[in-house]
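Q: What does the predicted 3D structure of Adenylate kinase active site lid domain-containing protein look like?
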Amino acid sequence: MGPQRQLLHSVIVGAPGSGKRTLALRITRRFQLKTLPSGDLIRDNMRRDTEIGVQAKTMDHGKLIPVDLVIRLLFQKLRNVTQDNWLLCGFSRTLAQVEALDRAHQVHLVMNLNVPFEVIRQLLEARWVHPTSGRVYNLGFNPPKWSHVDDKPEAHNKRMKEKGVLETFFGTETNKIWPYMQAFLQTKVPLRHPKTQLLQEEISL
């Protein structure tokens, strides 16, 4: 029996408009990680009118999808990829989600995107649309609020830093962040075909 293959279970986090989805796509193509965007999974269940999808639809406009619903959906999928490298995009919005993920699946890397607020403001033209719940924020007069200190990004980042798994990438656009992220990931997960453009491999919804 050969040596056990080292797995990479990773999460990418950042403010809306910071480029999470774009960079997640590049990562999965380049490093052949399985990806599971939580927002896509919730919307898929809503389209198919599953039990969880119906619960999400009945939420009052402007409220967060309950943490337990998001966790149930994601963990159902993660049980099928225990022997694969994977990347979660947009999952860890609250400390409760991070703690639940820690208990069920060891996280080896959290990639935090630090994009200047003014850049995000310009990119989104002063408007945030929460991809999961549909909440709309205006950055000028209706900024998003955090319900509890533990739900703030700072609390999440502090916890991940203490665990030794947090890596923060700074930049004003994805094309400037990507070279640093790619170089860092090459030390974490070897390319199977370094000279070939890898195809994205997603968990089918």
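A (community wiki): The structure tokens above were generated from the sequence. The domain at 12-192 is CATH 3.40.50.300 (Rossmann fold). The helical segments are 20-31, 38-47, 51-57, 67-78, 95-104, 117-123, 153-163, 174-185.
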